[in-house]
Amino acid sequence: MKILVLNAGSSTQKSCLYEILNALPDTPPKPLWEAKIDWMQDAAMLSVTTQQGTSLEEQILGGERQEGIGRMLATLYQGETQVLSDLQEIDAVGHRIVHGGEKYREAVRVTPEVVEAIASLIPLAPEHNPVNLEGIDAISKVLPDVMQVAVFDTAFHATLPPAAAVYPIPYSFYEQGIRRYGFHGINHQYCRDRVAALQNRLPHRLITCHLGNGASLAAIRDGTCIDTTMGFTPLEGLMMGSRSGSIDPGILIHLLRQGYDVERLNRLLNKESGLKGLSGVGNDLRQINRAIASGSDRAQLALEVYLHSLQRHIGAMLVSLGGLDTLVFTGGVGENSPLVRRSACQALEFLGLQLNEAENEARPIDRDIASAESPVRVFVIRAREDWAIAQECWKINDE
Ligand code: ADP
Questions:
Q1: What is the pLDDT of residue 162?
Q2: Which pLDDT band holds residue 18 (cuts at 50, 70, 90)?
Q3: Ligand 1 site: residues with CB under 6 angstroms?
Q4: Would you please indicate which residues are annotated as catalytic (active-site) residues?
C-alpha cells in the first residue's frame, strides 16, 4: 500500500510517501520520497529527496499554495526524483489536521461532513486548519477517488478528565468550547507506542516531552493521556522558541490598558517571546548556545528561564500522574540537546532517576539513556509524525 502524507504548517508544507507491504514494520521505515516547501513572501522553495538518494531544489514562482502542492506532487512521477510511474498508484493520503475540536477523538476518513467540521474549527486554529483544508482540496482535485484520512493533533488529548480540561472561568465559556484541547498529540501518541515497543510493555506512568520550536508535555497513565501543558491554543504551558508559554494573564490586561491591540499582542506572545524575546539572538537553541559561548548574559538568562519552565511543568505532570516510570524526550531540542535532558533529569534525582551520561551525550535515537540502576527509564525518541499518520491510514484501510 502506497501512502502519501501531507503535513501543512503556516510556513511550510512537508510531505512523504511510504510503502507498507504486508504488515506494519517493527521499526519506523524511511520514506520512498520526502518533500518540503518553504512558503516565502512572493515565492516558494521546494526541496525533494528520495530513498535512492536523488534530490532536487527549485524555486516555485508565484508562491500560490495550490500550484506549489501541484508541482511538489509532480516530482513523484517526473524527473530525477520520480518514484511512481503514475500518481494513481497512491492508495491513501493522510493529512495532519491541527484542530479536531471536541468531536474527533481519533483519525477518520475524510468526508464532506469532516471537511465541514474542520472548516467550522478555523476560529480555533486560524493559522493551521485553513492550510490543512487546502491540502485536502488539492488532493481531491488530482486523486478524487483515493481515500483521504484526517489525523488530528488534538485527538490524543480527548481523554483529559474534566478537572484537567476545564478552565476556572465562568462555566458558560466552557459551553462555548473554551477548554484545554492540547496539541502535538500525534507525536505524544507515537512516542507512547514507540516506547512501549522498545520496552516491551506500556509504561504505567509516562511523561512525554515534545521539545521543538513549539513545545508541550503529556502525562500518560496506562496509555491514556490525563494531562498536558498546551491548552485552548498552542500558546499555553512551556516557554518555547518564540512563544511565551504561560504567563500571568494580568500582564495581558496591563498591556491592553497601555493600548496594545489584538494583532500586536498576538505577535508579541507568539512570535517575539520565548528564547527569541529574552535572548535577542533567535528562537533556535543552537543560536542561544553560540551566544552563551561568546559571553551573552541575556542568552544565558533565556536558557535558565527555559530550563526552569521545563522543570516546573514536568513537576506538574509528575504530580498529576502520582509518580513516574518512563520519561521521553522528543522534538528538535529533546532529540539533540544533552544539556536540556540533563537539566530536566537532575530536577528528578529525588525519584532516584539517574542518567547514563555517556548515553546522553552519544546522539541517542530511540534509546534508553538512564543508568542501569535508575528506577525511572529515560528515552530519546525521534519524532516521526509523518510515519504515525501513515500508520493511521493503514489501520483505517484495514478496518
Ligand atoms: P518544529 O517544532 O518546527 O517541528 P523541530 O522539532 O525540528 O521543530 O525543532 C526545531 C528546534 O530544535 C530548533 O529551533 C532548535 O531549537 C532545536 N535543535 C535542532 N537541532 C539542534 C541541535 N543540534 N542542538 C540543539 N538544539 C537543536
A1: 98
A2: very high
A3: 212-214, 241, 283-286, 331-333, 336-337, 383
A4: 153
Contacts of 181 (CB under 8 A, 6+ apart): 99, 101, 124, 154, 157, 230, 231, 232
pLDDT reading at 63 higher than 80 = no
Residue ranges of domains in the chain: 2-152, 201-380
Report CA-CA distances (Å) from 398 to 23, 107, 132, 167, 357: 10, 13, 24, 39, 43
Q: Which one, of 61, 64, 62, 55, lies nearest residue 36 by Cα?
A: 55
pLDDT at 9: 81
pTM > 0.90: yes or no: yes
Q: Which residue from 211, 284, 340, 365 has its CB within 8 A of the most atoms of ligand 1, so it is best to mutate?
A: 284
Q: How far is the CA of 332 from the centre of ligand 1 (A)?
A: 3
Closest atom of ligand 1 to 331 CA is: 6
CATH superfamily placement of domain 201-380 = ATPase, nucleotide binding domain (3.30.420.40)
CATH architecture assignment, domain 2-152 = 2-Layer Sandwich (3.30)
Quick check: do 2-152 and 201-380 share a fold? Answer: yes
* Cα 23 to ligand 1 centroid, rounded to whole Å: 32
Residue 41 has pLDDT above 80, yes or no: no
Q: Give the pLDDT confidence of 185-237 residue by residue, as tens digits.
A: 999 999 999 999 999 999 999 999 999 999 999 999 999 999 999 999 999 99
Q: For residue 7, report the distance from its CA to the centre of ligand 1, in Å.
A: 17
